[in-house]
């Protein structure tokens, strides 16, 4: 079986400035991988290369394959059904002229149409609306039915982020790419969102590329981790192994920062989150 994502020797330059250098990144079918690094490390540029959304003037070398098929650097349509994304800029990710409800219902019905035989046939608008409302409630939208007629600009940043997560989950692509999906959320909502992602992936078997600066959040969800510093991979391997025995100085700094946020001075509490059964909220409580 082909991996959900295979990135080989990816290098990116913008305005002739090299920013990403020879990145290798592989996400197997059904695997959950974290891409971790500080702001400016090249995480989001790598995500944009996967999604085909790099800015004009970008120069790209290397190979990006989704499901065993090479995709062009600027051809988002080649990704249809192969990758669904929660992007960092939630306002830009949503259509400002279409209500949230219309976007979610359309995405769900289109997804079911692509896989109608496996999913039990086409959805009516009414059935799709009920499923959308249930998912919005699941991701922590307090008034899901009341949110449907709203436009993106009428929602808070945290609400938009959760709507974008719901939109990506509805698409049921082979790979879910989540770029800092918990950044605009409080700790309680972060835990809820991580739990929703985990349960949805358990149910669908989708692969995950989880992009974040927060190793503690990544450890609560992912089995494997790739660490980026200044556009280069400095460490990669098992999440559990990295949080217990980080080899690179930058990885050690990430573990130390995550340990402080988890409420302790060692990696033990972060390592506890690397168990697939440990919810994020439980880590801080230990």
From TrEMBL:
Keyword Secreted: no
Domain ABC transporter residue range list: 5-255
Keyword check for Isomerase: no
Family matches, as SUPFAM superfamilies: P-loop containing nucleoside triphosphate hydrolases
Similarity comment text for this entry: Belongs to the ABC transporter superfamily.
Membrane topology: Peripheral membrane protein
Cellular localisation: Cell membrane
Keywords: ATP-binding, Cell inner membrane, Cell membrane, Membrane, Nucleotide-binding, Translocase, Transport
GO cellular component, one term: plasma membrane
CDD domains: ABC_NikE_OppD_transporters
The protein, known as: Peptide ABC transporter, ATP-binding protein
Main location as per UniProt: membrane
PANTHER family: ATPASE AAA-TYPE CORE DOMAIN-CONTAINING PROTEIN (PTHR43297:SF14), OLIGOPEPTIDE TRANSPORT ATP-BINDING PROTEIN APPD (PTHR43297)
PROSITE patterns documented for this protein: ABC_TRANSPORTER_1, ABC_TRANSPORTER_2
Gene Ontology molecular function: ATP binding; ATP hydrolysis activity
């Amino acid at each position: 079986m082909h991996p959900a994502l295979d990135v080989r020797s990816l290098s990116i330059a913008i305005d002739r400035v090299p920013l990403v250098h020879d990145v290798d990144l592989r996400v197997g079918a059904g695997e959950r991988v974290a891409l971790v690094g500080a702001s400016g490390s090249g995480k989001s540029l790598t995500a944009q290369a996967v999604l085909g959304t790099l800015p004009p003037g970008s120069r790209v070398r290397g190979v990006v394959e989704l499901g065993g098929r090479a995709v062009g650097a600027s051809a988002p349509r080649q990704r249809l059904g192969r990758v669904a994304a929660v992007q960092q800029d939630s306002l830009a990710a949503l259509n400002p002229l279409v209500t949230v409800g219309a976007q979610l219902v359309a995405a769900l019905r289109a997804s079911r149409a692509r896989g109608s035989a496996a999913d039990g046939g086409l959805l009516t608008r009414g059935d799709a609306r009920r499923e959308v409302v249930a998912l919005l409630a699941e991701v922590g939208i307090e008034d899901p039915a009341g949110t449907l007629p709203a436009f993106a600009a009428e929602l808070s940043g945290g609400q938009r982020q959760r709507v974008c997560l719901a939109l990506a989950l509805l698409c049921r692509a082979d790979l879910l790419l989540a770029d800092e999906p918990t950044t605009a959320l409080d700790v309680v909502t972060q835990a809820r969102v991580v739990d929703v992602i985990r349960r949805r992936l358990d149910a669908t078997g989708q692969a995950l590329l989880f992009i974040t600066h927060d190793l503690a959040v990544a450890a609560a969800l992912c089995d494997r981790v790739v660490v980026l510093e200044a556009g280069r991979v400095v460490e990669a391997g098992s999440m559990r192994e990295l949080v217990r025995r980080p080899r690179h100085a930058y990885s050690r700094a990430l573990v130390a920062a995550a340990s402080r946020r988890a409420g302790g001075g060692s990696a033990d509490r972060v390592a506890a989150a690397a168990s697939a059964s440990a919810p994020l909220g439980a880590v801080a409580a230990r």
